[in-house]
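User: Structure please.
Assistant: Input sequence and predicted structure:
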Amino acid sequence: MTRRTPGSLGAASVAGVHPSPPLPPWMQPGPPGRPRSTGRGFAVGILTAGIGLYVWTYRVHKEMKAHSGQGVGGGIAVVITLAMGLATPFLTSAEVGGLYARRGLPEPVRAWTGLWVLVPALLGYLTALAAALTIALLLSDPSAALIVTAAVAGYLALLLPCTWVWFRRTNEALNRYWQAVT
């Protein structure tokens, strides 16, 4: 495998992969987006109770659509996130991977990368159901609040690290892409 130089996503970056023929002028890519700090983006998402991740979603999808002419764009991505939040990790990772694929390069992330969020989220829904049942059954028992608190803490202890893995992989792949095309 040949060595990749900073700022290159050409054929020399991966042995045996040949670039696509040049695109006609009307299909030329638009301006690249800007790299974003992965740690800062995730921390802002947590500190703002998720609002920062909506902003991140809007911005990266808007930039990917402006650059490639493909994808859902920022507004639709936020609507999808609001309506079907669990679809967003799959959609975002798929669109980031598509940027690489359109250049004939291996996709560092794909839609399946979203499974990092799906599995703990589904377990979280089961935890919420169990917490609701606990409250219903033990309403008069003061220990019910402690049980619910423990269930929520357990859910977050599982969800946050898994969401971090997805966010880190997807955001860093997008950052590498933007740095290479500038």
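Helices lie at 38-47, 51-68, 73-83, 87-101, 115-137, 143-181.
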